[in-house]
Amino acid sequence: MIPLQTLMDWLRQLAPLELAEDWDNVGLLVGDTQANVSSVLTCLTLTQNVADEAIAAKAQLIVSHHPVLFRAVQKLTSETSEGATLLRLIQAGIAVYSPHTAYDSAAEGINQQLAELLQIADAQPLRTVAPANEFATSKAGSGRFGRWPQAGTLSDVIERVKSALRIGQLQFIGDLSRPVQKIGIACGAAAEFLRDAKRLGCDALLTGEARFHACLEAEADDIALILPGHFATERIGAERLATVLAQKFPTLSVIASQTETDPVQFA
Length: 267
Description:
Blueprint: E1 2-3, H1 4-14, E2 27-30, E3 36-37, E4 39-43, H2 48-56, E5 61-64, H3 81-91, E6 95-98, H4 100-105, H5 110-117, E7 121-124, E8 127-128, E9 141-142, E10 144-147, H6 154-165, E11 171-173, E12 182-186, H7 194-199, E13 204-207, H8 212-220, E14 224-227, H9 230-248, E15 253-256
Parallel strand pairs: 4-5, 4-15, 5-6, 12-13, 13-14
Antiparallel strand pairs: 1-3, 2-6, 7-10, 8-9, 10-12, 11-14
């Protein structure tokens, strides 16, 4: 058994909460800091199915990338699906921790993992951390950008992205024949980084999903958008976290959720 506080301290080293966006809700969201943990489940989103899986696995901690209780609540009852799920977890003694945008922006966080998976050369943050932040490093910051590993077109990039993320199709904006030499990366729903990517000379921005008007903006600004889906760009973080946790704490039982799937499907 490992104290929950010990695991929280390690998670904060991996993804300092000071890196999170101001609007986010990160850290320990449910749980007793004095509890002990022998089993951990990581996931992208805490759904009822994931909660069932954690209870069946006798986990004491769920590390969910997306936070529960994202917005302030005045009641926690079984009358809502979120309330019912959390009450069951509390009754089962399961804590919930969410690193979210802190993990996105961490030096070894999801955006860095995507850059490494795609073999992006000289990857750097799209937005750097303020120098006054004690967690500012050359790699910590929002998104990533760098050189595409070899000369290629948007079509070539799309095929590599599909292969790397194990998906059959994706959405895109841009001319398939246009050359891509520099690319930006921002996991999840992060089309707000379009202007950053454009300013830094990127030919394309890879993000999970984008609103219609962001797609029009990309078209007008002549920068390609590659949209593999929110789930596809962030699920890798839950899987990597389970691996790293198990390596760091060999006595822990650690699994990435096997029940969660992308809710978005194509007919």
